[in-house]
Design goal:
mainly alpha, two-stranded antiparallel sheet, 81% helix, single chain, 215 residues
């Protein structure tokens, strides 16, 4: 319970800000293991169903790289969970782990678009686009507590699709432009929703913390 000095709260706003950021990290990590597992399964699906249509060495290197990234992300998530139980969490390190994992994972998923889109057949292309859009959309449910992580991941994945689509032969002219405009609209929609969620979460938790700490 905090003391009051007249009408002034003795706890600085920075402390409330830190507590909100800690809550954001906690929520991101609460579902992170399930999210990483689902993305690993998605990577294996892509490799087994579409790998034969691409250069075998390139796609194998991609699979090995993304599995290494997911192992790192799982290690970070399990380490956070163990440290949380023991009240030994270093939130700066936890945030850094999430940032590094988000960048590496986004680069891997964006990279598979650049590798596969120009060379796979029509049905394979639609399957790949579906997987990548689902992954980009699903990431917002885990990462939106901290907006910057959502921006990084969604941009890396969807912008790679947009950049690689002109290299395929199944959509051209107005169809290609409409597809790219739809992807840009999807990116903006996801980021707008993520920002709304982030702002709402930050405001709600900040208010609750202030009411709790200053009561």
């Amino acid at each position: 319970m905090l003391r009051r000095n007249g009408d002034m709260n003795v706890l600085p706003d920075l402390t409330v800000k830190d507590e909100v950021e800690h809550a954001q990290i906690n929520f991101i990590n609460s579902n992170r293991i399930n999210s990483i597992t689902a993305m690993t399964i998605g990577a294996l699906f892509l490799y087994f169903f579409l790998g034969s249509q691409t250069d075998s060495n390139t796609i194998l290197y991609w699979l090995g790289l993304i599995l290494l990234v997911d192992i790192f992300r799982l290690y970070a998530a399990f380490s956070f969970r163990i440290n949380k139980k023991n009240n030994r969490v270093n939130y700066h390190v936890a945030a850094l782990h999430i940032l590094i994992g988000t960048i590496l994972s986004g680069m891997c998923w964006g990279g598979v678009a650049i590798i596969m889109v120009p060379v796979i057949d029509g049905p394979g292309l639609m399957f790949l686009l579906l997987i990548l859009i689902v992954i980009a959309t699903g990431s917002t449910t885990t990462l939106a507590y901290q907006l910057k992580y959502t921006v990084i991941f969604v941009f890396l994945v969807l912008s790679s699709i947009i950049l690689s689509l002109p290299g395929q032969v199944y959509f051209s002219g107005s169809e290609l432009w409409l597809m790219e405009i739809a992807l840009i609209a999807l990116m903006l929609f996801l980021l707008k929703n993520a920002k709304n969620f982030h702002d709402s979460f930050k405001h709600t938790n900040g208010t609750i913390l202030k009411n709790t700490l200053f009561s």
